[in-house]
Amino acid sequence: MRRPFLQRSQEFHIISEPLHEFILNQYEEDVKNCITDPSKPSNLSLFMPKVLSIFDEVWKTHYDESSNKSKRVLYHEHSVVLLSATSETLILTNPQFLEMTHTFLIRNPEKSVRSIYKAATFIFNKSPELGNSFDKSLVGLGESKQNFDLLKDLNKQLIVVDAD
């Protein structure tokens, strides 16, 4: 998905799955903490400021260094992560968020679940501490539909791309 945008780096600033990266890092931190102290809970006080700082980065103006022209921002995130990260905030109804053009890449679920299963199995094999149980409900089909319906209900003009 990002390849065409990467080839036009003077026009686009790409922010690729920062919430996903943060959640994975927080999970790894929790695993370390649980090993030393299983009763220690996750530090959720870090979560909201991080979510807000990520969206501050999305909304700020980015410039091409050679021409000093402003760039458009391509921000993408997996629907499961976006929905879980923004459920406690008002990000999804923020005027800046609503001004964005929202695009949904749709794939045949049979192909996408198989692809994600293959990727997850690879990760499970490299990181045994994660276990190795694949849960197809975590693929994000339901969350994609929730995000789509929310934006549609807010009268957003959505772009839907058949990615198959």
UniProtKB/TrEMBL annotation:
<protein>
    <submittedName>
        <fullName>26828_t:CDS:1</fullName>
    </submittedName>
</protein>
